Amino acid sequence: MPATGSWSLLLLSLLFWSLRLDLSLSFSLKNCTISYFPADANANGVAVECSSRKLAVIPNDVPRNTTSLDLSMNRIVRISTVDLRGLFKLKDAQFHNNWISHIDDRAFKDLKDLNNLDIAGNKLTELTDDMFEGLTRLETLVLNDNQISSISSGAFQHLLSVRLIELGENNLTQISDVVPAFKVPTLKTLQLEFNNFESLEFDSLSVGSSSLTSLDLSINPLTRFSLKEDVFPHLQNLGFDECFQDMKWEVANKTFLRSLDRLTLSGTSISFKTYKEMLQTTDNIQNLVMANMDIWVKSDLVSIACQISSLSSMFLTGNNLGFLNRHMLHSCSGLTKLNLFLNQLTGMSEDAFQPTPLLRVLLLSSNRLTEVPAALLTLSSLEKLDLSSNFITQLRCSDFHNLTRLLSINLQLNRIFSLKPCVFQNLQDLKQLYIGQNSFFIVGDCFKVHLWKLESLDLSMNEMTTIQEGDFATLSSLQDLILLSDKSYRVAHGAFRGLDSLQTLSLNLAFFPNEVFSWLPSLETLNIHLILTVDDVTVNDNPPFSNLSRLTNLTIKVVNICRVLITPNLLSGLKSLQYFWTDAFFTGSLHPDTFKYTPRLRSLKIIRSNLLELSPELFRPLKNLKELDLSNNKLRSLGFLAEATLSTLNFLNLSENELLVINETVFHSLPVLTYLDLSENPLACECSNSGFIRWAIENNQTQIAHGHGYTCVFPVSQGGNRLLEFDVLSCWVDVQFLCFLSTAVLVSLVLLSSFVHRFLRFHLTYAYHVFLAFLYHKRRRKNIAPHRYDAFVSYNMQDEAWVYEELVPELEGQQGWKLCLHHRDFEPGRPIVENITDAIYSSRKTICVISQHYLQSEWCSREIQMASFRLFDEHRDVLILLFMEDVPGHLLGAYHRMRSLVKRHSYLSWPRSARTIFWQNVQRALGTTEATNTGRVA
Ligand SMILES: *[C@@H]1O[C@H](CO)[C@@H](O)[C@H](O)[C@H]1NC(C)=O
Ligand SMILES: *[C@@H]1O[C@H](CO)[C@@H](O)[C@H](O)[C@H]1NC(C)=O
Ligand SMILES: *[C@@H]1O[C@H](CO)[C@@H](O)[C@H](O)[C@H]1NC(C)=O
Ligand SMILES: *[C@@H]1O[C@H](CO)[C@@H](O)[C@H](O)[C@H]1NC(C)=O
Ligand SMILES: *[C@@H]1O[C@H](CO)[C@@H](O)[C@H](O)[C@H]1NC(C)=O
Ligand SMILES: *[C@@H]1O[C@H](CO)[C@@H](O)[C@H](O)[C@H]1NC(C)=O
């Protein structure tokens, strides 16, 4: 028994140790989550998300095969050499907005595959030679918003593939600070905005010949930009946004900027004269941004720019332009794209665009126009027109009359209150029409003109409340129709007639109208916002979606909380449905038949629905379900999962329910579950959760998303403690171990007491001898064979007469066996114990003559003990029990071991008659040799 005790202690400590071990290797990450829906839908990617978790160090349990790691918005102060060890597969690493002031040399050494590294918004002051060692595949390095003032000459030498380096918002002051960047042969884009550069003088000595195509010097206190030699032969993009003061522009030869395609200028700090010089040395540009220049733009800078014959696109945003006249664009005949976003335009002269007949794109959004300018009529090449965010109240028939090439019109966010059919009638090429967030009440006949090619129509957020029969009847190419608003529509029976190509429809409804959707044979996505006006809404008995056999995505969101009565056949006919997302739609319960029509469903969301419980039958038809979101309900038990047979489920969100205790066995019935979210449940730090806790920590397949952050609500004494840190061992000790321990102690006590009872009472020393003898013979027995006797006969003195008168004559005389009888064959003077053991081990069998006297005699029962030792030891059936009389059960009961022997082994009762058969049976029992005999001889 002491041995068993120490074994269990050892086992216990092993278990404890393995628990500890598992904590550090656990599949659920401590401070991070492996995204189930990674933003970058890289099928084989492992995206680890640890953003905004107040982390001070980089977690050490990031899986080795992580491809994307987001540690942004934490409090990390340092990246050390061990932090990112072994992350050989990492492609994207986000460290922005931390407190990093130090990065160890070679900290990124293992990141051989890294493409993007973002360390913006930290406290770095210098970049050392070996900081970026190993990043041979890095393409983008973002270091904005640090305090970098020194870059070591070899800092970028290891970056063999880098194309973009962002060094904006740092404390760089002179060209020598950034020479290492200019020298990177693969670098295309260098962002140096918002630093402290004052004088920049580029020559071959400092820069060599750079491969840069894009250089941003915006928001610097530049006093001088000097290009003395042809060091930027490939430069296409140059930016000087919002520089603080006027500067000297010294470009020795126009040809130095021959590749320049785009020039970005803004602000009024730079003088008109300098701007003019700039424009005169950049005469190959096609794109020019002149933003927030106000007076300079008004003072004819536009004309100067338009001298550049290659110029095709001009952004004149934020220039406070109030009225556009012909003069402003008079020399801009080559323009194809003009952006006048965010000015104060109230109107324009009718000939304002006459000089620019080639315009294809005109962006006038965020101005103060009250009508569509008549000036547009001259733009017969216009393809894209943006008039959003103005004050237009009305559209006239002539407004777009001549714009027959238009492909896209954006009129969102105006005050248009009525639509006339004539407005769009000439726009036969129109593909996109956005006219949401206006104020019209009816569509009327507006779309009954022939917009054959219209593909997208956004009418959201208007005042419409009805959709009439045939409103969209001619829009046979329409693919995408948005009718969402804060009002619900009365939809006429044939409202969607003719929309044969419609794939996506979003609208509000007050109820599910009968057969309205039956006109939409191509519909794949339907988003419905239910805005209910009465308390109870009954769905018609006719299933509303029955003809939508191609629908894959259905979203139903109830906007105002009401009780919806839903018939079980709601989804009838949706045989292609894959995504069914509902928000506050089902209330309280679902009919078990709800999903029997949708066998292809792979993603099901039933959130904010007050669900108390679900029936397992509900999920039975869903053989392809991969994602199930039941968050924000009132579930208290997960029993339904155990029987739901969701054998394909990967993702399960049960956050914001009322789960207190979780029985982890339900997850055994979800064989491929990889993501489980149980956040925001009132979980209990109690032993009833210990099974779940251990499973959460130990299982290596299912991630318990945010698991290490779950805190307990119950019991009050544990309130706020972390669930996964609950000491399950105490439960184990409490319940199982105590159980085990107490059973063990009880058993040993019982054994011990019976031991004491049987042995000590008479011959403690005898017991000791029996044991020694047993050991001795056990060791010796191998040498003993062959047996000297056929059987050793153990009997009580009281039965001696029977033995000598009946047994011996029969077995020795008639049957010819050689018996060992202690009165006859024991060696005199030898310890009795040795004699017994010797007799037992040198006989093939032991015959016990059992009577009440026998059972009461100590010596005889020792013989049984011994024989049964041998029995267990040699696995041979050596014992033959001959019962002289019916022994009362309670007497036998004391001989535990014998009782089981009697149950299993040969025993024979001395009969009152038919003794011949008895002796034949004894003969047979003596005759069996090897092999365990479990058969009864009766
Ligand atoms: C990433 O590794 C984990 C275990 O280390 C494994 O379960 C998982 O399948 C791996 N993921 C990928 C995409 O290789
Ligand atoms: C990170 O996880 C560990 C282990 O669960 C926890 O002790 C620590 O508080 C967590 N850190 C943060 C910032 O949540
Ligand atoms: C910028 O660097 C200069 C020296 O190069 C230093 O004097 C100044 O304090 C730094 N400014 C900031 C905001 O770190
Ligand atoms: C500018 O450079 C080109 C070619 O490098 C050369 O032919 C031309 O003479 C130079 N012009 C001036 C004004 O130096
Ligand atoms: C509009 O187009 C018509 C011909 O389709 C033309 O006669 C008319 O002059 C155009 N309007 C303007 C303002 O250019
Ligand atoms: C359906 O929704 C899913 C999830 O948002 C999306 O990935 C898929 O592209 C959608 N399908 C269609 C046809 O819109």
TrEMBL record:
Q: Name one GO molecular function term.
A: signaling receptor activity
| One Pfam short name | LRR_5
Q: Which organism is it from?
A: Salarias fasciatus
Q: Where does the TIR domain start and stop, copy by copy?
A: 787-926
What is this protein's record name?
A: Toll-like receptor 13
- Write out the annotated subcellular location: Membrane
| Sorted UniProt keywords | Glycoprotein, Immunity, Inflammatory response, Innate immunity, Leucine-rich repeat, Membrane, Receptor, Repeat, Signal, Transmembrane, Transmembrane helix
Which InterPro entries does the entry mention? Leu-rich_rpt, Leu-rich_rpt_typical-subtyp, LRR_5, LRR_dom_sf, TIR_dom, Toll_tir_struct_dom_sf
> Which coarse location class describes where this protein primarily resides?
membrane
Signal sequence annotation? 1-26
For biological process, the GO terms are: inflammatory response; innate immune response; signal transduction
Topology in the lipid bilayer is annotated as: Single-pass type I membrane protein
Judging by the UniProt lineage, the source's domain of life is Eukaryota
